[in-house]
Design a protein that fits this description.
66% of the residues lie in helices and 0% in strands. The protein is mainly α. It has a domain at 102-303: Orthogonal Bundle (MetI-like fold), CATH 1.10.3720. The chain is elongated and about 75 Å long. 34% of the residues are buried.
C-alpha cells in the first residue's frame, strides 16, 4: 500500500502568485514590515487624539492652579492621578497641553505638506510637459529657491510680517515646493514618451487631460513618499519656531513652546521638557518610519 505524501505546510513566507493584484501584493509587503505597521498605528493614534482632544484631554489646557504648581507625574512621590504627567509652572496639566498641542503641529504638518505637494507637482508637470525653455526656467528658479535656507527665510518673513497662524501656513507651504517640483519633473520626463502618452496625443487629447489622466497617476508614488518625509520636516520646523517664540503664540499649547518653558526647570521639574520632547520625537520618528515603509511598498527596487 502506497502511503500518501504529507502535504507541505503553508507559511506566511510563501510569495503570492504572479496573478495576485498589485494592490494585494502592496498590502502584503506593507503588512510584513512590522516597524511600518507600528508607525502607521502610532500616527493614526496621534491624529485621532488631536481630533478628539476636547473629549479625551483630562482637563482644560489653559486652566491655571497655583496650588498645583510643578506637581510631579502620578507615579512619583507627591504625584496625583488628577495630573498623570504632572503640571507646569502655572499649574496647568501637562498631559492636556500635550494632547491639545498636537493639533497645530499635525495640522501644519499635513496641511502645509499637502499644499507644497500640490504646488510642486503642478510646477513639475508644467516643467516636464512644456517646451524645454520653460522647464529650464522653472528648474533654475527651484535651484535658486533651494540655495536659500528655508528656515532663515521663514524667520526673516515672520520678523517683518509678525507671527500668525495664516503666515505660518503660507511660509511652511511654499518652503518645500522646489524639491517636489524637481522630482516631479524627472518622473514626467521618464514617462512622457511612453506609448500610452503618445497614443493619447495622437487621439487629440488636450495637454491638461494627458497630464492628469495619463502622466500624474504614474508619477505619484515617489511623490507620496516624499510627502510623508515633508510632514515630519514641517513638524520639526514648527516646533523649532515655537521654541524660539516665532511659531504658535501663547496661551495656545504647542510642543515647541512647552519645550522652551521646560528648559528653565530641567533640574527641579524635568517632566516639563521631557514629555513634549518625547511627543515631538515619537511623532517625527513614526512619520519617517512610515515613509520608509511606503517607499519599500511603492518602489520595489529600494528594498534591494
Amino acid at each position: 500500500m502506497i502511503e500518501a505524501l504529507p502535504r507541505p505546510a503553508v507559511t506566511a513566507d510563501v510569495p503570492l502568485p504572479a496573478s495576485a493584484s498589485p494592490r494585494r501584493r502592496a498590502l502584503r509587503t506593507f503588512a510584513a514590515n512590522i516597524p511600518g505597521v507600528v508607525a502607521l498605528a502610532l500616527v493614526g493614534l496621534m491624529v485621532l487624539a488631536s481630533l478628539l482632544a476636547p473629549l479625551i484631554a483630562p482637563g482644560d489646557p489653559l486652566a491655571q492652579s497655583l496650588s498645583d504648581r510643578l506637581a510631579p507625574p502620578a507615579w512619583l512621590p507627591k504625584g496625583s492621578v488628577r495630573h498623570l504627567l504632572g503640571t507646569d509652572q502655572l499649574g496647568r496639566d501637562v498631559l492636556s497641553r500635550i494632547i491639545w498641542g498636537s493639533r497645530p503641529s499635525l495640522l501644519l504638518g499635513f496641511f502645509c505638506s499637502s499644499l507644497s505637494l500640490l504646488i510642486g507637482v503642478a510646477l513639475g508637470l508644467i516643467a516636464g510637459l512644456s517646451p524645454r525653455r520653460w522647464g529650464v526656467f522653472i528648474m533654475r528658479v527651484a535651484d535658486a529657491w533651494q540655495a536659500f535656507p528655508a528656515l532663515v527665510l521663514v524667520i526673516a518673513v515672520i520678523a517683518i510680517l509678525g507671527t500668525s497662524f495664516q503666515v505660518l501656513i503660507a511660509l511652511l507651504s511654499i518652503s518645500g515646493w522646489a524639491g517636489i517640483a524637481k522630482i516631479a519633473r524627472s518622473q514626467v520626463l521618464s514617462v512622457k514618451n511612453r506609448e500610452y502618452v503618445q497614443a493619447a496625443q495622437l487621439l487629440g487629447a488636450r495637454p491638461l487631460r494627458i497630464a492628469i489622466r495619463h502622466v500624474l497617476p504614474n508619477i505619484i508614488s515617489p511623490l507620496f513618499v516624499l510627502y510623508t518625509f515633508s510632514v515630519a520636516a514641517i513638524i520639526l520646523v514648527e516646533a523649532g519656531l515655537s521654541f524660539l517664540g516665532l511659531g504658535i503664540q501663547p496661551p495656545t499649547p504647542a510642543w515647541g513652546s512647552m519645550l522652551a518653558d521646560g528648559q528653565n526647570f530641567l533640574e527641579s521639574a524635568w517632566w516639563l521638557g521631557t514629555f513634549p520632547g518625547l511627543a515631538i520625537l515619537l511623532t517625527v520618528l513614526s512619520v519617517n518610519v512610515l515613509g520608509d515603509a511606503l517607499r519599500d511598498v511603492l518602489d520595489p527596487q529600494a528594498r534591494g
